[in-house]
Amino acid sequence: MIGAAAxxxxxxxxxxxxxxxxGWRAPPLAQLQQMCGGQQPDYGADTQAxxxxxxxxxxxxxxxxxxxxxxxxxxxxxxxxxxxxGADANAQARNEWVTYLNEQRxxxxxxxxxxxxxxxxx
Length: 122
Prior knowledge:
With about 120 residues, the chain is mainly alpha-helical. The chain has helices at about 1-10, 30-35, 45-60, 70-85, 90-115. The protein is built from five helices and no strands.
């Protein structure tokens, strides 16, 4: 019984390791983006990192820890910064995008931790 539970937990993301298409109760990136409307950019090689940030924010939103307006503002900020800096071939602009994205990922994870007991220390 313990082995089966460990296997179930260990394979929670096995169906789709990238997560971009959703699975195991996770909505796909396109569905998360549609929740706020607006045109979303193609994040290219950064799509997985952007999905992780948006998904973490969505979990907090779904559990009432992040208002819908703030969730949508978060997504809009990612899209705006990517368009301004992330898609740029200039190394300095790209570094600004990566720094911004990492800060946003940390913020989203913090929001998710406030709602998801599996992320709390203890």
